[in-house]
Amino acid sequence: MSSILIQQFDFMETIVNSTGALVYVIDLSTYTVLYANDRCIEEFGNIVGNICYRSLQKNQYSPCNFCPIQPLEDPLVHPVGTIYEWENQNSINNRYYLFNDRIIRWKNGQLAKVQVGIDITKQKKLEQDIISERDESIRAFEALSDSTIEGLIIYDESKRCIRVNKVAPALFGYSSEEMIGRDALDFIAPESKEFVRTAIQNDDQEPYEAHMIRKNGTIFPAILRGRNLVLNGKNIRVSAVMDISDIKQKEKEILKLALYDNLTELPNQLLLREYLQRNDKNDHYRGLLFIDLDHFKTINDTKGHGAGDLVLIETAKRIRETIRQSDTVSRSGGDEFIVLINTCETDKERAIDHISAVAKKILAELQKPYLIMEYDFRLSASIGIALFMNNEYSIDDLFKYADSAMYNAKANGRNTFNFFDPKLQQMMEIKALMVERLRKAIENHSLMLYYQPQIIFANDRLQFIGVEALIRWNDSEHGMISPGNFIPIAEESGLIIPLGEWVLQEVTRQLKEWESDVSKKDWRISVNVSYKQFEKDDFVPIMESIIHKYDIKPGKLRLELTESLLVKNMQEALNKINHLKALGLSLSIDDFGTGYSSLSYLKQLPIDELKIDQSFIRDLTNDSNDVIIVETILSIGQKFGLEVIAEGVETEEQYEKLVSMGCKHFQGYLFGRPVQPSYL
């Protein structure tokens, strides 16, 4: 063998041993290992001359069924030059390898397979940590005859390219000839040059990331690994390049899922918090706006979530187009949006004016018609605003303050905005404490029912016909708390559901007890039903269960329903009311005339009573409008064959006026205040 051939063989041998890959040659007729590089021997011992599957696998006594040449009955039929690429976890060391096999003719002409394996254990772990699947971390090595691995570039001591494999030109968009002679930094993007210039000073460089540049100027991310070698007395550097564009794209997609709202593509609350943290030192006022759409749930309930999603997308678009590029809008979930406004103002009053103007614009935009899916939706919003400078408040406090202000805007009639007020915050905290105390009071059955008499004028005299159950809360710390204070809190917190069920149980028990009392056995009890109770799917079954439990005459229990519960879904409400009537219950429309009064539902409802709201009784003796309204309600009741009861009757004058107008049923302080049942 000539010295030139020996040098070439040594060169090839050095390259093979410097790659860090397993390289071995297998006789396809006998599965004998004909050649193994240093890396292979380090890992598995001197396996040359041994059967491959017995030396390279644990407890393997026949050719490996996962080897890609096995599907054919005779491995010798594989054409020379055939390449296979596959992965396997070795059963001896449990490490993962990416293999590139090529069918060749070996020294004596026998058919053999060159197998090149790259250890991808670390990449497999990264792949499992980031996502369940990812593109292959490393491409296959080229065959031994090419003496290179994919993305392999060899540089001389001046860092000039002296050799590339056939894949490197495709990676960078050059021909092989164009790459030869180029400086190593010619393939590095400008933003990574300084970093790479330092990195390549290391003789044996651990893998690192950098941006590469193609011939056409496009840039791509890559993992680089280099090693300095001495070959024939000359210093060379072997550099491996792996394109990780797909991995970076997946990382970008994962990051987007974590930090952006999937529906509107707006930043989510997590990313907004990052913005606030990065800019917590700012010598001008900023505003955090909590925006909540009013009655958005009605759209989802009546038109479906598809329509609701389109409304949210359009809302995001409108808010984004209303604010400046320096401001930030995010979606925190549901129908809530959060806007961060930068005012560039150091004067508080001017900052308030600036933010108020933005809030007004947002409200105006959201009031414009939403033409979606052939529907014409009309919406409004409630906005709560927390004004702040620098880091005077924690981020959690800012969110709490803006949220508190938003609820205050809703309480003030909606379609408006409110700035956070410390006094308001104190009130909200007191409300939160009241919710907790009310919860415990319900759980401990420490509330009580009072009963107010209901009277009928018949045969020229007043007769006692029943009572209305009214809940009372005598708190151990705060004393008697008005229902006007705690019932709205119960409605808002959802506690009205267990509270209402307790009331129904207690009232029904009282009716059963009075059955054995001669003076009270014919009394009925009226009880208010919250719209939140009524809209629950199990309300009718619960009522049926209570009636059967206490075995009462259901006609003695009169449920007072408000007109407002008919607004959301009249047909569903009518179905429920019909079921309740079928159970034998007596039904009343409470506060008639104050809400959605409509003769169309009166003619469909199997109700027994209309209840005139006390707001019409209060000024009845001196307000002609109230007289007209009461006369109308009495007339409606008479025409439909319904009882009409006036509540809030407190004076003889009111009573006499009502009697002169034909009213026969009364309730109010004139006839008795609410008392405990033992006082009746």
Number of separate structural domains:
4
User: Structural class, judged by helices and strands?
Assistant: alpha+beta
* CATH topology label of the largest domain: TIM Barrel
Beta-strand content? 25-35%
**CATH level 1 class label of the largest domain:** Alpha Beta
Query: What characteristic shape results from the CA principal axes?
Result: elongated
SSE layout and pairing:
Blueprint: H1 3-18, E1 22-27, E2 33-36, H2 38-44, H3 52-55, E3 83-89, E4 96-105, E5 111-119, H4 121-130, E6 152-155, E7 161-164, H5 167-172, H6 176-179, H7 193-199, E8 208-213, E9 219-231, E10 234-243, H8 245-259, H9 269-278, E11 285-293, H10 296-303, H11 305-322, E12 328-333, E13 336-342, H12 348-367, E14 370-372, E15 375-377, E16 381-389, H13 395-411, E17 417-419, H14 422-443, E18 448-458, E19 461-475, E20 479-481, H15 483-493, H16 496-514, E21 524-528, H17 531-534, H18 539-550, E22 557-562, H19 565-568, H20 570-582, E23 586-592, H21 599-602, E24 609-612, H22 614-617, H23 624-640, E25 643-647, H24 652-660, E26 665-667
Parallel strand pairs: 16-17, 19-21, 21-22, 22-23, 23-24, 24-25, 25-26
Antiparallel strand pairs: 1-2, 1-5, 3-4, 4-5, 6-7, 6-10, 8-9, 9-10, 11-13, 11-16, 12-13, 14-15, 18-19, 18-26, 19-20
Helix pairs in contact: 10-11, 11-12, 13-14, 14-15, 16-18
